[in-house]
């Protein structure tokens, strides 16, 4: 679906496609498909409602659960199971008020499993959960007498017992529970990282805006300072000209300050002019 496309239009297009698929099944000459169509036509309404409730109650982060599939099923089983569920919960066939929502859920699940990147990411987490379940089983069965006896009786040894356990419903149920924990933890980390990135991006935007405001303020201040330069120079010149005074020697004292008066020598004076307080200092002989 295009990112800019209205979800309602996309859902309607998907619904029309499913109706065409149903019509193709009805028009086909394949006896098995005709029998399948007749089976779903005669299906009880309670079964359809149960399927809707199962789909809507499935773990939302795992498309396999939404379609009711084992996690290790072959690729061709995905399309087959989708066709089966879609015929059961089709809004035109099912009277459940949330049949349309369930129909859209399995459609999105099929789309995710057909997307190579999304499927690869999902399978990575599912395999990680599978290894955790197997490691727990191996640790628990190391000292289990029943497992040792079964390994001795099996031609494949303990590997054969492990393969039988992997194929059992008990293993898949444990795998399902572990996968929910792994996927939920991954989703929580993804949302936390997304939130942190959004906060960092917002903070960077605010810092950039503040830098722009500060740069603009400095430019305006420099421009204003440059405009008043002539006024400042003229005011300083007026101040110098108005306060300037001439000293006795004919020089102009800057700012009206008079230079110190030069001392005149007097040969008739028999004393030495001293600084203030110097008269109290005894003369050296």
From TrEMBL:
Residues 1-28, 199-269 are annotated as: Disordered. Residues 62-126 form the J domain. It comes from the Eukaryota. SMART domains: DnaJ. Residues 199-232 have a biased composition (Basic and acidic residues). It holds the Pfam family DnaJ. PANTHER family: J DOMAIN-CONTAINING PROTEIN SPF31 (PTHR46620:SF1). This is J domain-containing protein. The lineage of its organism: Eukaryota, Viridiplantae, Chlorophyta, core chlorophytes, Trebouxiophyceae.
């Amino acid at each position: 679906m295009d990112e800019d496309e209205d979800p309602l239009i996309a859902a309607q297009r998907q619904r029309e496609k499913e109706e065409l698929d149903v019509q193709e099944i009805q028009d086909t000459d394949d006896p098995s498909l005709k029998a399948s169509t007749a089976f779903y036509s005669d299906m009880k309404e309670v079964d359809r409602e149960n399927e809707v409730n199962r789909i809507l109650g499935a773990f939302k982060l795992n498309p396999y659960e939404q379609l009711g599939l084992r996690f290790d099923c072959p690729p061709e089983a995905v399309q087959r199971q989708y066709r089966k569920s879609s015929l059961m919960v089709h809004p035109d066939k099912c009277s459940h008020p949330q049949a349309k929502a369930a129909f859209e859920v399995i459609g999105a699940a099929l789309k995710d499993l057909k997307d190579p990147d999304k499927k690869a990411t999902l399978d990575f987490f599912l395999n990680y959960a599978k290894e955790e379940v197997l490691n727990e089983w191996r640790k628990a069965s190391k000292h289990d007498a029943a497992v040792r006896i079964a390994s001795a009786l099996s031609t494949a040894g303990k590997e054969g017992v492990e393969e039988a356990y992997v194929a059992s419903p008990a293993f898949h149920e444990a795998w399902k529970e572990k996968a929910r924990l792994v996927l939920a933890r991954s989703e929580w980390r993804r949302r936390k990282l997304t939130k942190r990135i959004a906060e960092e991006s917002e903070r960077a935007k605010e810092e950039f805006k503040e830098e722009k405001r500060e740069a603009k303020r400095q430019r305006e201040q420099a421009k204003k300072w440059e405009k008043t330069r002539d006024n400042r120079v003229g005011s300083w010149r007026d101040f110098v000209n108005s306060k300037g005074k001439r000293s006795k020697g004919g020089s102009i004292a800057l700012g009206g300050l008079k230079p110190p008066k030069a001392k005149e020598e007097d040969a008739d004076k028999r004393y030495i002019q001293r600084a203030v307080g110097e008269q109290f200092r005894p003369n050296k002989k």
